[in-house]
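Hmm, how's this folded?
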Amino acid sequence: MQLFFWRKYFCAVGMAMLLLAGAASAQNASVGTVTQLQGSATVTQGTAPARGLKNGDPVFKDDLFETGPGAKLLITLTDATKLTLGPNAEVVIDAFVYNPNGGANTAALRVTAGAMRLVAGALEKAGGPQAIQVATPVATIGIRGTDFFVEQDGGHLSVALFSGYRVAVTNAAGETLLRPGEGTDIWGPDIKTAGAPTQALTWAPERVNRALGLVTLARATERTLPYAQPVAAADDVGTALIQGKFKIDGRYRYEYVDQASRPQTATASTLRLRVAYETQSWNGFFAGVGGEIALNISTLGRECQ
């Protein structure tokens, strides 16, 4: 009887130790990898001193990442989420849990300085509408978007949604909801005294391209692919198709040739007309169609004489 008791006791202790070891292993498991580094960046883990990063380094929960001047850092998380930091950025991964077969899927990031772009992976769908949260000194950001941008520049926060469904930017003074192509700004020293997020506005192409330039890694010989124009968002396909925008572009060209060997001068007048239609965005997709005609109006002038 006594032998049976001790056998059960040791089995229970052994199971408890295995469970604790499994929990500790999960706690210390890597949540991603440094995929690409341009310039210098460091990571700080707990109370350990900061150390330099290199391609292939593992990424863990509670890591503090800091990039140097002109540096850019790309991190790929285990669900294929792409996290890109721009120059002079400070970002902490406060939480990241991805279990494709479970329900506890969540990510929490903290941006205290610089620019960050996040292109969500499988966690966004597995975790639901509140799966991704971003904290900043002046607001919290709830994400339901595939591709969004955050920049904390001193007391100025900029947030934009490039594609996806919706982003909610909230602080004590108010809340602004963003749809694809829209952005908002907040000014203030901290979340308690900062002003409310500005009204959602479509970002101009210049501002979108500046943001992309801050968080896009490219070779020195490459240029960042620009957005042709910011797109408005529609709630359904029908609305996207019928509420697009027409573009009309006309150009006139005049040519004059005077050669000493020719008894007469030559002239030509050409009118080129280009017409295009672009739909609104729906779930990050949009379409366009266009065409052009060229008309020699110098010939028309002679026929009318």
Summary: The radius of gyration is 28 Å. Helices lie at 2-27, 123-127, 205-214, 237-242, 297-304. Residues 237-304 form one domain.
